[in-house]
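REQUEST FORM: STRUCTURE PREDICTION
Request ID: SP-0412
Submitted by: Lab K.M.
Chain count: 1
Length (residues): 205
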Amino acid sequence: MTIQLHKGDLPAGLQFGPIVAIDTETMGLNPVRDRLCLVQLSAGDGTCHAVQIPQAHGANDAPNLVALLADPDVTKLFHFARFDVTVLKAHFGVTCAPIYCTKIASRLVRTFTDRHGLKDLCRDLLGVELSKQQQSSDWGAPELTREQLNYAASDVLHLHALKDKLDAMLAREGRRGLAEECFRFLPVRAELDLAGWADTDIFQH
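STATUS: Completed
RESULT:
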């Protein structure tokens, strides 16, 4: 595993290929209240590019990162995309698309379990044990620890392999089309979360 830490933005000209795994670390779980601190990205090659986001830092301060997030030719691969897409929209004003979410894919095909967390998927599908010890640490600290960076990197380095496993299961169960429609809806779900409907099921009677 290789981790490259960047301050504020990705280097110009950095290429990730057609699919980039992305995760975020924030000061809390409320995307309206809690600021974005770190964005992790990987091309699935064993390298994590971690972008540390300073306070009062907007889209104009990270043009390379924002361009990648908005690139229609690059699939953005997340686990629990709803949160990350909402956070990125709130902070940068960018709409991420197209999207693939391993949590949604798991919920559609692994209906024999209620365990769809990243740690569960890595263990069940890849035989990889992830540590979540740093999950609740202070991501707004000016200097992140090696333990924090290792944790952050682990959240993106396995997503490509998980996608391959889940794609095979979606095809086997005939649910790939349904998954793709769910993925397409995620930017709208993010808009609803930010507009005040985060805890309301608008499809409910």
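NOTES: The domain at 2-197 is CATH 3.30.420.10 (Nucleotidyltransferase; domain 5).
Reviewed by: T.R.
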